[in-house]
Specification:
This protein has 4 helices and 6 strands, in the order βββαβαβαβα. With 152 residues, the chain is α/β, with parallel strands linked by helices. A 6-stranded mixed beta sheet has the order 1-2-3-4-5-6, sandwiched between helices. Helix 2 packs across helix 3.
Length: 152
């Protein structure tokens, strides 16, 4: 279960995705489930919709593609999506991707490198199960909350 005290902020769906946004320790976390094939055309609406329910400068997400839906992405796609994040005020991106896709580490490496290049600090992790994804994201939220609270 997502961190104690989490409240649902929004439930939504766009083509090939359903998502729930939770408020956790003052941050918004998007739990995104892949329900169909994904490519740039369906990713763009997802980014815009989740950004409407984000609290910049942080973006936390769990993306669940444990069903193994087809996933097409290019470096140019990543660049365009990262620019959407920048335009949405995102400076920090933390994501756990649930997938057994053997090619996903390459996608994560490209995404991390481009996020860094455009100035978005990030940590991405591919995991095989939900408990691992939740543990990673809960840890990141706790770390960011501790930094925020020290500054207050």
């Amino acid at each position: 279960m997502i961190g104690s005290g989490a409240n649902v902020v929004f439930n939504g769906a766009v083509e090939s995705y359903t998502f729930t946004t939770f408020r956790v320790k003052g941050f918004h976390l998007h739990e995104i489930k892949v329900v169909g094939p994904i490519d740039l055309r369906v990713r763009i609406p997802l980014y815009h919709e989740t950004l409407r329910h984000s609290l910049p400068p942080h973006y936390f997400c769990i993306i669940d593609n444990s069903a193994g839906h087809e996933n097409t992405v290019t470096f140019e796609d990543i660049r365009l999506l990262d620019n959407i994040l920048l335009e949405g005020g995102i400076e920090f991106y933390y994501g756990a991707i649930i997938s057994k896709d053997q090619g996903y580490p390459n996608i994560i490496k490209l995404a991390e490198e481009n996020l860094y290049t455009v100035g978005i600090k990030n940590e991405l992790l591919q995991v095989e199960d939900r408990p691992s994804a939740e543990a990673f994201i809960n840890q990141k939220i706790a770390e960011v909350a501790a930094l925020r609270d020290r500054k207050a």
